[in-house]
Every structure is written in structure tokens, then in C-alpha cells.
Amino acid sequence: MIEIKEINTNSNFMKKTSTKHIDKVSSINHVRTRIKSEVKKAGFTYETFAKLFGYTEGWFSNIVNEHRGISVEILLEIAKKLNIPASSLLPEEAQKNPESLDEYIDLRIDKKLEELKRFMEKLIENKLAKNK
Q1: Fewest beta carbons less than 10 Å away: which of 1, 17, 63, 130?
Q2: Are 90 and 101 in contact (CB under 8 A)?
Q3: Are the C-beta atoms of 28 and 70 separated by less than 8 Å?
Q4: Neighbours of 35 (CB within 10 A)
Q5: CATH topology classification for 1-96
Q6: How far apart are the first and last CA of the chain?
Q7: Cα 125–chain centre separation
Q8: Alpha-carbon distance 49 to 38, whole Å?
Q9: What is the rounded distance in angstroms from the CA atom of residue 28 to the CA atom of residue 24?
Q10: Do the Cβ atoms of 63 and 70 come closer than 8 Å?
């Protein structure tokens, strides 16, 4: 399963990494290359594409040039703005198994729902405490 995490590839840590980490970095570099290609294919400059997010050209340039990590949320937004499936930005082996991305998204949704549930429980608890 391909794991997409925020990874900063600009560190001396790279010299001490395991094969598993190198595979992840290789995968994330593939994602960066695909993003560059798709942005160009869609006719955007880095500046015009970054403006779609409300950021500067430097922000986007940092993402595609390995100076900034790529979170799954950013990856999904990039795909949405390019009007392409997010899985098309992933390495071929991940495209053959898109469930891995879907599973990650489902886990993120579940986590957010849990956070919302805890927030609502505290809100109700506080409201009940004030009414006593």
C-alpha cells in the first residue's frame, strides 16, 4: 500500500533512511512530477495555479520542488482544481489499488467525526452544567 504523508525530503535524515522511507520518497517525488505535468498540461503557470488556492507562486513552487511537504488534503485539492482524479497523481501501483487512498480518506473522515462528536459532547456537558 502506498502511504502519502507529509514528507520533507530536504534533510540529512535522507542519508540514514530505510528502504521503506526511500520508497515513500520515491512515491512522493512521482506525485510531484505528475503534479507539475498536469498543471502544465492544464495551461497554468505556477503563479496562476497558486492563486486558485489563495497563495503565492512561491508556495506552489515549494511544493513541487521538494521544499514543502504534500499533505493528502493538498493533494486532493490540487486534483480537484485540475479536474482529475487524485489517484491519477499517484504512482502506478497505487492507481491499481485506489482503495488505499479511499481507505485513508475514510480514516480521516472518521477521525474528524470523532473530533466533532467529542466537541459536541463537551458542548452539551457545558450547557447542562450552566443550566444546573
Answers
A1: 130
A2: yes
A3: yes
A4: 21
A5: 434 Repressor (Amino-terminal Domain) (1.10.260)
A6: 52
A7: 35
A8: 11
A9: 6
A10: yes
Per-residue pLDDT band at 28 (split at 50, 70, 90): confident
Please answer whether residues 60 and 44 qualify as being in contact, where contact means their C-beta atoms are separated by less than 8 angstroms.
Answer: no
Cell of 64: 513541487
Using CA atoms, how far apart are residues 89 and 112, in angstroms rounded to an integer?
25
Handedness of CA 33, 35, 38, 44 (dihedral sign): negative
Place of cell 459536541: 120
Per-residue burial over 106-130, b if 16 or more Cβ lie within 10 Å, else e, is: eeeeeeeeeeeeeeeeeeeeeeeee
| pTM of the full structure | 0.54
Question: Could you report the per-residue pLDDT of 66-97, keeping only the tens digit for each?
Answer: 888 888 888 889 999 999 988 788 776 655 65
DSSP state of 84: S
Closest listed residue to residue 29, CA positions, set 76, 89, 100: 89
Residue type, 6: E
Please provide residue 92's backbone torsions phi and psi, each rounded to the nearest 5 degrees: -55, -40
Grid cell, residue 27, equals 512515491
